[in-house]
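Both lines are quoted verbatim for reference:

——
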Amino acid sequence: MFHAAHGYERAPAPEVKEPETTPTSRAATALAPATSGLKSAPRTAPKATGRDAYFDNAKYLAIVLVAVAHAWEPVMEGSRATRALYMVIYTFHMPAFIIVSGYFSRSYQGKPHQLRRLLTGIALPYVVFEVAYSLFVRYGNDEPSHPISLLDPYYLTWFLAALFIWRLTTPLWRIVRWPLPIALVIGALATLTPDIGADLNLARVLQFLPFFVLGLCLKPEHFQMLRRREVRLLAVPFFAVTLVFAYWVAPRMNLGWFYRSSSVQDLGWPWWSGLVVIIAFFGCAVLLSAAFLALVPGRRAWFTVLGAGTISGYLLHGFVVKAGDYWGLFESQKWLGSPIGLVVVTICATGMVTLLCSPPVRRALKCVTEPEMTWAFRQDVAEAGPRR
């Protein structure tokens, strides 16, 4: 009765780049490659690495939610509680990533060294992993005719394509007078256009655009306000009320609303409801994202170091989840849909993505996610950005 969104092939996730002050901070850390000279939110204590523990903590915790939600999809059918949790997570985990991505894109001006990092930190990983996932479908799922197309992002790779587009448009959003209302109108119009086409998953790119623009509009003091004690205390009951509401509405809700890849007509609603729906979902997503960011610890923790490697965890965990699906693990092990099984799936997904975010894996993947590629650029461009 509560069927999982097993056909969802472009789940979120990713990571946001931080100011470049050291070799560590120059990594492609959040599926939102770097912006130089950008001030981050207030820190609890300066770090020798130049990274902000708060944002690293947020990225790690968010990528855990991404991996867990993806692992639930094949086994949550029939569990109303899991479906409710899934709906709550999908309401805010992508918007939270995108908001932070926008926040760290504020200084992007299209300068040569910024374009260079855009190509090496987003475009290259997109091409590599789009091809890798397509080949994995061909041979792992025995679909030899599955196309390899850079215009049709598969599964996780849509976010890299979206981030590339959003980042390129950043200078435009910085000069218009009402960026957020304009972005909301564009997003609403995207929900009313069933024939928008599948190229680069443009429907989802435009529907998620308001969150990126919101991030561009934020300042460090906004994050400081979220971390106030009273806000943190309010976040707990807010999540509790949201979960209760989600449990009530779970059997009645079409999960397609949470993926933002379909028009309202495709979801069986009248066209005029698009504006109302996108504003309602935007408001819910912003509130839940704020509650999540309020609960993120600001001090350095054991998992803080993993925040620098979330791009690795994001891009790699999809292979593990899809392998279990393609090879019949979820279908053959029916007990995974039981309460105990769902707990096991959650623990395994958390451990898996934690391992994939670890420094050794990040270093192994650096040739794809953080390549220098000085050979591909003119010397004056290669030396234009901050030095390592």
Q: What stands out?
A: The first helix runs from residue 53 to 72. Confidence is low (pLDDT under 50) at residues 1-48. The two ends are 55 Å apart (CA to CA). The chain is about 60% helix and 0% strand.
